């Protein structure tokens, strides 16, 4: 059974775990109404480290992504993210993904169930292109900070004020710089954080300490 990178931290916080399609995932900490109340009135964190993450590198990576998905990804700078849809030549949806621009390539974040399917589908289009594709699901954290105080929580990791207009934000903690992306997929304000396994060893404790400080 696969475990989240922060499994031990969730366990120390009193999480109750269940087997969800081969993943040992934290499903609750407190009564559900208390958790929902926290999100509605303060802030919470959703650990989605189980989502599929594929790294695409090489000089032809961007060209390949633009040819086989629907959005224009050429305008992204390092640390930015953009949603896109991978489709078949006949327009059938393969998967809906978020793509993050890294220093040395792109991180494709997909659903948990479609990881191998998406990887194999992308590989079909790699013929003469100089591209390397790999499954890095367990190499990256993917956390969503959600709630009315989510921006206030992130402000602890940034000197400049975070405004309502900020969609892609750079945060810093103990000399580690990492991006946060505003997301409109929830009923309240939310930001998704992306950082590597090694960076997580530094960032996670500080993040959860601030979380506990606001209840």
Features:
single chain; 215 residues; alpha+beta; 5-stranded antiparallel beta sheet; 6 helices; globular
Mean pLDDT: 90
Strand content: 35-45%
Which structural class best describes the helix and strand composition?
alpha+beta
Radius of gyration: 18 Å
A few lines on this structure:
The chain has 215 residues and is α+β, with helices and mostly antiparallel strands.
How is this structure best described in words?
- With 215 residues, the protein is of the alpha+beta class.
- 26% of the residues lie in helices and 36% in strands.
- It contains 6 helices and 13 strands.
- The chain has a 5-stranded antiparallel sheet with strand order 4-10-13-12-11. It has a 5-stranded antiparallel sheet with strand order 6-7-8-5-9, covered by helices on one side. The protein has a 3-stranded mixed sheet with strand order 1-3-2.
- The chain is globular.
- The chain starts with a strand and ends with a helix.
Summarize the SSE layout with pairings.
Layout: E1 2-3, H1 7-12, E2 16-20, E3 23-28, H2 32-41, E4 44-47, E5 52-57, H3 61-68, E6 81-87, E7 93-102, E8 105-110, H4 115-123, E9 132-135, E10 140-146, H5 150-154, E11 168-173, E12 176-183, E13 190-196, H6 197-213
Parallel strand pairs: 1-3
Antiparallel strand pairs: 2-3, 4-10, 5-8, 5-9, 6-7, 7-8, 10-13, 11-12, 12-13
């Amino acid at each position: 059974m696969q475990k989240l990178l922060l499994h031990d931290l969730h366990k120390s916080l009193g999480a109750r775990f269940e087997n969800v399609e081969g993943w040992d995932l934290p499903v609750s900490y407190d009564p559900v109404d208390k958790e929902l109340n926290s999100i509605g009135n303060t802030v919470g964190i959703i650990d989605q480290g189980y989502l599929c993450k594929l790294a695409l590198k090489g000089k032809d990576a961007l060209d390949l992504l633009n040819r086989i998905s629907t959005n224009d990804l050429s305008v992204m700078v390092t640390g930015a993210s953009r949603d896109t849809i991978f489709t078949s030549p006949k327009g059938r949806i393969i998967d809906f993904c978020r793509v993050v621009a890294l220093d040395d390539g792109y991180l494709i974040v997909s659903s948990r169930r479609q990881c191998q399917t998406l990887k194999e589908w992308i590989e079909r289009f790699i013929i003469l292109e100089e591209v390397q594709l790999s499954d890095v699901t367990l190499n990256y954290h993917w956390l969503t900070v959600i709630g009315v105080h989510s921006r206030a929580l992130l402000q602890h990791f940034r000197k400049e004020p975070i405004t309502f207009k900020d969609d892609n934000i750079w945060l810093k903690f103990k000399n580690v710089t990492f991006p946060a992306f505003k997301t409109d997929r929830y009923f309240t304000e939310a930001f998704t954080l992306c950082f590597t396994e090694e960076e997580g060893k530094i960032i996670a404790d500080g993040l959860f300490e601030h979380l506990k400080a606001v209840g």
